[in-house]
Amino acid sequence: MWPIECPQIDFEDVIAEPEGIHSLDGVWKVSVATFTVSKYWCYRILSALCGVPLSVCWGLYFACLSFCHIWTIVPCIKSFVIEMQCFSRLYSLCIHTFCDPFYEALGKLFSNIRVTLQKDI
Fold first, then answer.
1. Does residue 73 lie within any of the structural domains?
2. Mind giving me the DSSP string for 73-94?
3. Domain tally, the chain
């Protein structure tokens, strides 16, 4: 599967002071520390409260999805492919029987046509 990257959000990505205007260094440092600590603890608290219930929900969802895929979708696709092979052979036989001679005759009929281009000066 493809790698799924988690978003990396830093203070500078959210709060970016433009060139020419900056807050006091102390305010900037406290703001960075407050942002980082509150983001860290908010994530930890939310993951502690919601992590287990959501993991149960996602586990059930992917179990049902896997069940449907294994027991319904794949067998339907395989049976369809098997049935279509029979029709494919019949269709191919009809095309080769009826159409091939017609197009071969047309090809031989038009094979002697020569086209030359002349440029008038």
1. yes
2. IHHHHHHHHHHHHHHHHHHHHH
3. 1
Does pTM surpass 0.90?
Answer: no
Longest Cα separation, the chain = 91
In a domain, 104, yes or no: yes
* Residue 78 within any structural domain of the chain: yes
Residue-by-residue pLDDT tens, the chain, 121 positions:
566 777 777 766 677 666 667 777 788 888 888 988 998 999 999 999 999 999 999 999 999 999 999 999 999 999 999 989 989 999 999 999 999 999 999 999 989 888 888 888 7
Burial zone of 112 (CB within 10 Å; 0-12 exposed, 13-18 middle, 19+ buried)? exposed
